[in-house]
Write a structure and sequence with these properties.
InterPro entries: Bact_solute-bd_prot1, SBP. By secondary structure, the protein is of the alpha/beta class. It contains 21 helices and eleven strands. Strands 1, 2, 3, 6, 7, 8, 9, 10 and 11 form a nine-stranded mixed β-sheet that branches. A two-stranded antiparallel sheet has the order 4-5. The protein is globular, with a radius of gyration of 22 Å. The two termini are about 40 Å apart.
Length: about 475
């Protein structure tokens, strides 16, 4: 097994929109055969329970990248070519309706065999008894193909519930010209980070006003729709709360540091550095504001945004009418999230992947083995390499690295180095958090934190009122002894 920090050490090979993890190039997908040839587990090993009987594996997949869904027919054909007795049947979903579609199928007791979701949602479905543990089915060759760090995000307790597609860092992104006009030493920030106090002063300098009208904000973060929980989750990791639970399994968000971050959320709006209408800014609007020069810094920033900005620049130079209306040439700069209260900087990793589900009935050994073949096919080899190259993320499988050898990726070298720093500070996986605790934390997030955060952003409640609501819900769920009391 590889050293679990191999991903971080190997970040030299960096080669992701929520609707915007924009990626897979159709040119490379034309003969995509997943792990075939490049990965030993796909062709040289039989998974336990494997047979030659006909079988169909279903998968519910969102637009992981710009061209990803347009290649579904090719993926299905390549999988059938690799396994002539098996059919891969893919159902597309948008990022916006992915969770609703999946939950509807789960609640009906007939989920897809594979669904592309964030690793943070695994505990929810384990608690419902609807995930399939593939520990005894995934071959040694399959497991060895993955870097251990991201693979561990697909674990819960002793179980393994799928394969990761990528490991990306949620960061911020800046407009190089605007940063320099504001006197911000962005190269220093990339390497050394910044405190919340330094960040707050920087985004104040990025504001441009004409009379009482703000023409450019210092900072805009998407907080509506599918991004509703991202903002707070990224900030609190840098305030001594890298996870919802401490190492001794106490719920962390009752810490006084949580309240201080909530105060900061209001401060940046009240300063005028962020829009008063922040609660209505979704992922698309956030990116549009960045490309049209309405903000100096945007979040959350993903590596693929550099690629998206570059492509829009090319359209502007070519007078291509499909460029974002009103957009300006923009050089995208990767920036870290600020740290709070003297706490160490902790990067917020996004590990999404192909999670394996089961219905109400126990799947046969044969079907289980076939689902694992399909999940590995999607997560490795050429599919993985093509996705990673377009998302500007590191390959996390050896087969992906081999398949990516001839794929050229043109990145800003300063951004490459910045991402290496962020990867080195990424919060590790926490498979030790019991399923029932993880599921209860997700419930508090969905029922209390997200709606209260929206109210806080809209200035309908105070930081103190939100903090007390979260604390009350946490104590009700975990008891006085099960939460942080500092």
């Amino acid at each position: 097994m590889k050293n679990k920090f191999r991903l971080f050490a190997s970040a030299l090979a960096l080669t992701v929109s929520l609707t915007a993890l924009s990626a897979c190039s159709s040119g490379n997908n034309g003969n995509n055969n997943g792990g075939a040839g490049a990965s030993p587990g796909a062709t040289n090993s039989q998974t336990p329970g494997a047979s030659e009987a006909k079988d169909t594996i279903t998968a519910l997949l969102p637009p992981v990248s710009a061209n990803y869904q347009s290649n579904f027919d090719q993926m299905e054909a390549d999988f059938n070519k690799l396994y002539p007795n098996l059919t891969l049947q893919i159902e597309p979903a948008s990022w916006e309706d992915m969770t609703q579609k999946l939950d509807t199928q789960v609640n009906a007791g007939s989920p897809p065999d594979i669904a592309f979701i964030g690793s943070g949602g695994i505990s929810k479905y384990v608690e419902q008894g609807m995930l399939m543990d593939i520990t005894d089915v995934a071959t040694d060759e399959m497991i060895a193909d993955f870097d251990e760090g991201p693979l561990n995000y697909m674990r819960n307790g002793e179980g393994l519930y799928g394969f990761p597609a990528y490991m990306e860092i949620h960061a911020l992104g800046g407009n190089k010209k605007f940063l320099e006009e504001a006197g911000i030493d962005w190269k220093k920030v990339q390497q050394n980070g910044w405190t919340y106090e330094e960040f707050r002063e920087a985004i104040k300098k990025g504001v441009v006003k004409e009379g009482d009208t703000t023409k450019r904000y210092g900072f805009v973060f998407a907080t509506a729709g599918v991004t509703s929980k991202d903002y707070l989750n990224i900030l609190i990791k840098n305030a001594g709360m890298p996870d919802a639970f401490t190492k001794d399994l106490k719920y962390a968000y009752t810490s006084k540091n949580y309240l201080e971050v909530l105060k900061a959320v209001r401060q940046m709006i009240d300063d005028g550095s962020m829009p008063k209408e922040l609660s209505s800014v979704d992922a698309g609007k956030r990116w549009n504001m960045f490309l049209t020069g309405q903000t100096m810094i945007t979040g959350k920033g993903l590596a693929t945004f550099e690629n998206s900005a570059n492509k829009n620049n090319e359209k502007l130079k070519a007078n291509d009418g499909s460029a974002v209306e009103g957009s300006i040439e923009t050089e995208y700069i990767v920036l870290p999230v600020p740290s709070f209260l003297g706490q160490p900087a902790v990067s917020s990793p996004a590990v999404d992947g192909y999670v394996t589900f089961r219905g109400k009935k126990e799947p046969t050994a044969e079907h289980k083995a076939n689902v694992v073949k399909a999940a590995y096919f999607l997560a490795s080899g050429k599919i993985a390499a093509t996705t990673a190259s377009e998302l500007f993320v590191e390959n996390i499988t050896e087969s992906g690295r081999q398949a990516a050898a001839d794929i050229k990726v043109d990145r800003n070298p300063d951004n490459v180095e910045a991402v290496k720093v962020l990867l080195s500070k990424a919060a590790p996986a926490r498979p030790d958090i019991p399923t029932e605790l993880g599921a209860e934390a997700i419930k508090i997030e969905d029922e209390v934190i997200i709606p209260k955060l929206q109210a806080l952003l809209a200035n309908e409640i105070t930081p103190e009122e939100m903090y007390e609501a979260v604390k009350e819900a946490a104590i009700d769920a975990f008891g006085e002894d099960g939460v942080v009391q500092d």
